[in-house]
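Quarterly update, task 2.4: 3-isopropylmalic acid-bound model.
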Amino acid sequence: ATKKLLVLPGDGIGPEVMNEVARVVAWMADARGVAFEISEELVGGASLAVHGVPIRDEVIAAARAADAVLFGSVGDPKWASAGFDLRPEIAILKLRQELGLFANLRPAKVFDALVEASTLKPEVVAGLDIMIVRESVGGIYFGTPRGIETLPDGSRRGINTEIYTTSEIERVARVAFDLARQRGNRVCSVEKCNVMESGLLWREVVTALHAREYADVELSHMLADNCAMQLVRNPRQFDVIVTGNLFGDLLSDLASMLTGSLGMLPSATLGAVDDAGRRPALYEPIHGSAPDIAGKGIANPLAQILSFAMLLRYSFAMEADAALIEQAVANVLASGLRTADIMSPGMAQVGTSVMGEAVVRELDKL
Amino acid sequence: ATKKLLVLPGDGIGPEVMNEVARVVAWMADARGVAFEISEELVGGASLAVHGVPIRDEVIAAARAADAVLFGSVGDPKWASAGFDLRPEIAILKLRQELGLFANLRPAKVFDALVEASTLKPEVVAGLDIMIVRESVGGIYFGTPRGIETLPDGSRRGINTEIYTTSEIERVARVAFDLARQRGNRVCSVEKCNVMESGLLWREVVTALHAREYADVELSHMLADNCAMQLVRNPRQFDVIVTGNLFGDLLSDLASMLTGSLGMLPSATLGAVDDAGRRPALYEPIHGSAPDIAGKGIANPLAQILSFAMLLRYSFAMEADAALIEQAVANVLASGLRTADIMSPGMAQVGTSVMGEAVVRELDKL
Ligand SMILES: CC(C)[C@H](C(=O)O)[C@@H](O)C(=O)O
Ligand SMILES: CC(C)[C@H](C(=O)O)[C@@H](O)C(=O)O
């Protein structure tokens, strides 16, 4: 069966870094005989500019039909005042919700060659390897009632609703427990059960599921404010963290910044396996569209390339090929090449396309 | 007029560190002729054990009648399964809400003598001095509907509601702008307006208030996930941060951990000035009840002592006395005394009461 990929470069540096993935895809076809059928669509500000909406229904349908979606990034200051329903971000939120992509896997990993890039002391972050599993189609992101209403006296009121159900909590916790079994076998579940009933239910459901099906995995619970502190104090205490949509948004960004190299971090967002054995999935770098450096040819393409490696691993079970790409990236770093965002004294600074070419050259050697 | 203080030591290390404040209060009476009328009550687990509730109505009334409340900390694993309505934490939540303590001021300051205590590199945090102003009686902490409901199929659903009104946003933003004018004159307002309408209203209201009354202060806006990252990447970019209850909970804990010395950080929570010119206020250390080290005489009393200094400054406009206490604390640190939590090689490790005595001895010298 051909492997159908939908590529959505998006805004800012998205298209630039996606270009470098194209080289790796071409290499896969040439050297390994693995062919992908690739189609490409506009999303975010790029779609707004042409179609007047951040994502068209046709694109959602194409994402559904594809075996996997490779996403760049969305967000563009040009559209800052486009209105709440026309934000470029709608593109990613709609894809998550329409495809039921409920488990956002966000690794925070420190690459040995880049341990100095962190603002944290090397002895605190060396070897760091955390996986944050963030619920991504529920919680306060999507709960209703929501909106802004005007009160009789002319003042206004903004409302959002956090909702979590037993089954929403269970399915994302399962992903976390399953991942933990392939890693350090430890899960830390994070909420604010001392203040929020949705967090209390979260803790109860995770605890019960653990006792029922995952007693072999070590489970701990932590309040979200304490987790924010512990990630700074001693991040290596964590293996897998599982949490809701909003806490996951903050905590995973915090965790990835501990590595000092956002430009290196990929992510996956997975849905449920359907009756035909298919699982919707989207892969994207953790970094955003970085409008300030867009179009300059200096963005780091490695997170986007590593997102493609994650895609091979999770959507096509091509573990060997994924590992090959990851090894090539490690070798390029070891050889001293750096884009501006991860540059340090004594290294060789290169632009986006030189970095992409270097990865392919390393792949040739492996 | 006598100055009426309500002292609420609470749980864990609360009573131990509060003992050391008593020395400072005694010194104030002796050396400066400033007398306080002090009453003390149980809260948290300590109140649960005796009265069966985390805080009695009489204690709320006493807090209302006092000129200021000095709070220790609440939280005790013994009461972990006491039920949602009997958590020790109810004590602080109820005090905030019943007294209308809407502005939680949480400084994150790196003491020169302790710059090495941070897990962040000294060059990133030296001189750090951020003030986080967190809204503390609204948002998802108190919004309704809330609770856990059982659905017809036996599964459950947890719900919480985030609500912010124009006036709730304006009054806390005013506190932030006013503070900024006495500091670096910069306010960064933080929400998730790209996902939540309550955040969108927050941004609009802060922007309008700024234009109307505070155009001399520099205002910027930041998404909460980005703020979590920026606090790790370059915390010194901030002067005053203003944000909602839930984001403030995580971000202020994160910010205080950047200093590496939670045991040093005080906080204030202020209400509105009433017609008689009185302003309800509560002061507490940022650290929690630390049950693991309670009763051992090793807790750091400095955050509690500095909370008392904040109390003098904000509730009684006793700036000189507040500064005196802060100077005494700085001198004690400079002399090399350290409690276990801030110990480093070459320093002299002491317990809670030796540290408290040392502050008073320094006060004598000033
Ligand atoms: C773009 C934005 C809506 C999104 C989110 O808040 O989920 C982003 O921050 C992320 O974490 O993927
Ligand atoms: C004890 C708890 C309810 C409280 C909160 O979440 O507000 C604490 O974390 C704080 O920040 O003061």
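Highlight for this quarter: Chain A touches chain B through 59 residues (CB under 8 Å).
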